[in-house]
Amino acid sequence: MQTIIERIEKEIATWSPEAGAEEVGIVRATGDGIAEIDGLRNAVMSEMVLFDPTFDRTLADALKDPNPVYGLILNLEEDGVRAVILDDTSKVYEGMLVRRLTAESSPKGGLGRLLSIRVGESLIGRVVNPLGEPVDGKGKAEATVARPIEHQAYGVIDRAPVHVPLHTGIKAIDAMIPIGRGQRELIIGDRGTGKTSIAIDTIINQKSEPSATRPICIYVAIGQKESKTAKLVAELAARGAMEYTIIVTAPASAPAALQFLAPFAGAAIGEYFMEQGKDALVVYDDLSKHAVAYRQMSLLLRRPPGREAYPGDIFYLHSRLLERAAKLSKEKGGGSLTALPIIETQEGDVSAYIPTNVISITDGQIYLEADLFNKGQRPAINVGISVSRVGSAAQTKAMKKVSGTIKLGLAQFRELEAFMQFSSDLDADTKKRIDAGRRMTEVLNQGRGVPLPFAMEAAIIFAATNGYLDTFPPEEVGAIETKLQEYLSREAGGLLIAIRESKEIREESEKTLREKLDAFIARHTAIA
Amino acid sequence: MIDTYTRLLEVTAEIEDETASSAAITKLIMHLKSAGRMRMLPQIARELKKVAARRSALRPHVEVAHKKEEAAALIAATREGIVVRHASVNPTLIHGWRAQSGGTLIDRSAKRALLHMYQNIFT
């Protein structure tokens, strides 16, 4: 009690009635989450404003709900400005006073003048909204640094080439479409083809990284069902992945403005860690919904519609977001921000407006196909059109060594497989290639939620590419591979550690691996 | 087109000479008639009402908590560049005054100070 009294007395002592003039506006009209405001002649784009509910109420009423509603100015017009409302839109009414944020009008610990969020280590393990406010019921996050949500991406001089791999734990990706730290790799496919699963497995797999090099993961849920996000958080928590993960959520029920801001907030959080010299991974799930939210906002702001009614700057919206992913130079601390944007296609149409935009912005794409998914292939990656433009520069020597010819072999297999449908009489060589392709497809098949450590992936792919599994019929390879994993974990722990630490399969490691594989194959061939 | 006519009437409203402004309005109506655009008149009137409402919201005015504070408030507001002849009484201010003109607000009321203090302590 004494502390409170002292605090109040201190405030009274320092209070001066000589408040200066401040620039204000009046809400002319409001609707659909947009407010038209008169005044605010000196306001700038992306400036935060606050709708003051206390101005025309009595003190007693004002104290019942003194919290302002925030808005973001997105249109500067001849006779006023238009702002999107970032909170409960029903609290904003015609004639309401709108203040610009100043040191005085911004509540303590509040936001900066340009739209910013407070970031810091304390956000790790939390679920926050795009304004950085926790929504997981675990209390306030004491984040200390205010970062603008919109930030100019790093230039050429500040960047270093992408060369450090980011292991997803998914054999097909790490072997054929390697992702590097600082890269932007698009995950694209129809609904229900496993796009989110790839992103989540990648996050879960970072658990196997040493804590010093483990990236901080940020999952941005845009326009998702809250039940889906809750399930995802529970899964990450159960797998121990929330220890290094932050969830930014703007659910389907959130205003379009918050959905529009969510990926930028995720990027701002990721940049904070990148600038500390750490690695960060940000998943934008998904940018199709983000584009839809931006279209809604733009139409309500009366901006001219373009193709598919998207505004003219929809490409710039996504390019300026994804350009923020970077691998920084040593002088800048060497941190990185890897981006995994997700795009949902309709009926596999990758030539639609938003998919082509994002394909052209990113450094490659993982294309998931509904047909492959229905055939039981997991992940349902179409190897033919999936690509990583960073390529083997983002692969360890071990993975490069074992996975060299897989992509070519699988592409040949797909062609032969199509040809096989028209011909029942196949020569021995073709049949051998087809069987090899089927075996490799089985080896690369991997269920959801079971990412593998990099050394295990390398050992399994080594076995597959060096013919150790050729003695088994293709339909048995899946079961044999599971047994091989168990065997290697049990019998070759030291070998796996050596591969993990050296990041390559050295001569002595290869010798040991071959011995272990021979022993395993001998045992299982005898049983069969 | 409606915007242009509205803007024209907005400028006309600023003319202090009533005879001149009345003549201008008559000429505009004659022009609308001759151009066959009389149907636009209700829309122009509607737009003009909006402009008037906007101007009224941003017009200079001073509020005081008590009538006895009016004289001091008007002098202080004039010093800050907001010149009005009378102040309205708004008891919700508790004490002090506030003045508004265009997009500028000067709030020297006790209500504002108390709210500010509350926010500093509890947020």
In terms of topology, how is this protein built?
The complex is a heterodimer of chains A (528) and B (123).
Chain A lengths: L1 H13 L7 E10 L2 E6 L8 E5 L6 H6 L4 E9 L2 E6 L11 E4 L15 E4 L7 E2 L16 E4 L22 H6 L9 E4 L5 H11 L10 E7 L3 H13 L6 E6 L5 H20 L3 E7 L1 H14 L13 H9 L3 E2 L8 E9 L8 H9 L2 E5 L1 H5 L12 E2 L8 H7 L2 H15 L7 H17 L9 H12 L8 H18 L1 H10 L4 H21 L1
Parallel strand pairs in A: 8-12, 10-15, 10-16, 11-12, 11-13, 13-15
Antiparallel strand pairs in A: 1-2, 1-6, 2-5, 3-4, 3-6, 4-5, 7-9, 14-15, 16-17
Helix pairs in contact in A: 6-7, 8-9, 11-14, 12-13, 13-14, 13-15, 14-16, 15-17
Chain B lengths: L1 H12 L4 H17 L6 H18 L2 E4 L5 H10 L7 E3 L6 E6 L2 E6 H13 L1
> Into which percent range does the helicity of residues of chain A fall?
25-40%
Structural class of chain B: alpha+beta
Q: What gross morphology of chain B would you assign?
A: elongated
Poorly predicted parts of chain A: 103-112
**In what range is the share of β-strand residues of chain B?**
15-25%
Contiguous low-pLDDT stretches of chain B (5 residues minimum) are none
Question: What is the arithmetic mean of pLDDT of chain A?
Answer: 90
User: What spatial form of chain A do the alpha-carbon principal axes imply?
Assistant: elongated
- Main sheet properties of chain B: 4 strands, mixed
One letter per element, helices H and strands E, the order of chain B comes to HHHEHEEEH
Intertermini distance of chain B? 50 Å
* Quaternary structure annotation: heterodimer
Counting helices, strands and paired strands, the structural category of chain A is alpha/beta
Strand order in space, largest sheet of chain B? 2-1-3-4
